[in-house]
Amino acid sequence: MKTKILNTISLFFKPIIKVLKMYKNKLEKSMHQRFVLFGILLALVPLLSNLDIIRYSTVSLVAYIVIFTIVALGLNILLGFSGLMSLGTAGFVGFGAYGVVYFSSLGLPYEISILATLIISSIIGLFIGLFSLKVEGVYLAISTLAVGEIFSQIFRRVTWFTNAFGGVHYKYPLLFGVVQLNRNTTFILLVIMMVLMMFVMYNLTNSKTGRALMAMSRSNSSAQAMGVSISKYRLLAFLIATLYATIGGILYASFYRYVQPLDWNLMLTLLILAMVVVGGIKSIFGTFIGVFVIYGVPSLWLEELFSSINGVAYIFSGVLIIVVIMYYPYGFIYVIQDTKKLYHKFKNGIENRKNKKKNKVENNV
Amino acid sequence: MSVFISLILRSLETGSVYALAALGVVLIYRTSKTTNFAQGSIGTLNAFVAATILVKWGWSIWAVVPVAMVTAIITGFIIDTIFIRPASKVGPTGKQIITLGLIIVIIGIIPWIFGVEPIPMPQFFEFTEANRINFLGAVIGFNAIFVIGVSIFLMTALFWFLKYTDWGLAIRVTASNEVASKLMGVPTKTVTLMSWATAATFGTLAAIIVAPQTAVDINMMNDIQINAFFACTLGGFQTFYGPVLGAYIIAMSKNLTSYYITSTWSTTLVYVIIMIFLFFKPVGLVGKKFVKKV
To answer: What share of chain A has pLDDT > 70, as a percent?
Structure first.
């Protein structure tokens, strides 16, 4: 009986494995293919929920992970590649969410409201970029924190824009004035945006721009001596990070359809920062893993495991962050390399032992 | 005129709280090379200890505060030995994330041990007819005088300690270059341990001073934490007295703008002014520009 079930399961999986094997060479060569495959796999999540394999609420959770992967990717470009620090990320995410809702409420179509929000936030991002030309290091980090705080004051006080503490409601987006999305299709929109953002980041960081940013992060003076324009690339880095954060916010509003002012605080900024550092600086898939560790693990398992006692889930997720940073200071993505090493060690160990036994037998003979 | 004076007095009170928190932040920044985001949370945790003892066992506030100071020192020791020292290989951003992890752990510990209800906390002196004086037409309670006095005394004591004792010298040396001072025989480990303990006590004191305004609850230090950071940037991270100066300036400008210009936007206005100031003086009021040789 058991073998029969196993056989049917393997029959089901065989074609998938075959296709994967066919694409294996291509996947190893091209990161783009990997992003697309990853996107397709993620896009299956609503289907799984429809088939009752996973819970309905898990889709929202994965959506949150997808949205904050986009935000964290932006911060990763800023922090990982250009070595600049921003503590105002949450403010920009909030601005994106509120902006798209506000412009839609004026009667503008979805795409135009996105465009308007992006234009305004990129202007603010450029201002911070200009600011970063004079202020450095920890002073810059705390100044961006000031920007985040100003945003959070605006969210609380400007009633016509944010409806203060009441929050604003939104609806699932209507694409191009024709296609009305629902929960599942909005989720797919999020995944498509994430894959697109991964593409942009990969292409950007593997181009002249990426190399210039990296040179800048090592040493400003040397980069300048090599002909890298510091002002241009700093502005660019802040612009990109701002746009990523704003896009994350826009998608947040589109999927959750409710924005309230108290979410966009220093704590969220620090969590986004943690996603980047825990996952792996400069690594695209690492960022996703980081978001998963910071947000997914606590809400998927820890909260349920320790729901009986107040706050214990928090203790575990805090300790998890600290432990990951201590043992993987360059990012959790290196856990994959380490397991590979361990696997090879193990394999070699077994082979060695076999050879030894063989030798022994041969010697005895 | 009396309004102006009472505004100044109130600013001195809030400024003292900011200054205590900011001193903790800058101490840890100089010795452990990280911005400690958990400064406020450590204070909140120990304020919860104080408030719980006060409410459950009925101790007076004068007995409770020393107990909280002791637990603060213990928290500082624990955090340094368990989390910060083993992470010496971790970069500055990684250390910041460790302090974030600490915040999350503390957020978990508080409801687990002390419950979810905010706990009320009395002032050192109640604001009654007998416990207040007229100062140039402005009314000031004994509590405010006590708070200002204690904070200024503590800060002066710290500065004296830093300047005239051997341990103070060790702290300053470690702050300027940890590797070199280790090579010269300075016990840098003990120095970091001490600075974490001191920072924790200062944070706790700030939390206990603020607590009576609302009640002891998890989010009570958020605002102070952020203002302490701004005080550090405004004053400059290079000196120990810069942040104190910054703290009083921020408190004063907040109170004055909220009374004379706009009460809703005073915080925003002050933050914008700080940013404009930093644009022209990027290392703070008394900071020195660190020139890196190529």
So the answer is: 92
Q: For residue A142, give the nearest of B98, B116, B229 by CB distance.
A: B229
Interchain pair A312, B112: CB under 8 A: yes
Range of the domain at A32: 19-332
Interacting residues of B145 by C-beta distance below 8 A, sequence separation 6+:
B133
- The owner of tokens 């997808």 is A66
**What local confidence, expressed as pLDDT, does residue A131 receive?**
85
d(CA B241, CA B285): 10
pLDDT in the model for residue A28? 66
| Residue A52 included in any domain | yes
Residue B228, CA atoms < 13 Å, CB-side half-sphere? 32
Euclidean distance between CA atoms A260 and B117, whole angstroms: 24
The pTM of the full predicted model, rounded to 2 decimals, is 0.85
Tens of pLDDT, residue by residue over A322-353, are: 888 888 878 777 877 888 888 888 888 888 88
Would you tell me which residues 227-256 of chain B have a C-beta closer than 8 angstroms to some C-beta of chain A?
Answer: 229-230, 232-233, 237
- The token pair that represents A263 in the structure block: 């979410």
Number of domains in chain A: 1
Cβ B275–A146 below 8 Å, yes or no? yes
- The domains found in chain B, sorted by start residue, are 2-280 (1.10.3470)
- Sign (positive/negative) of CA torsion A239, A242, A244, A247? negative
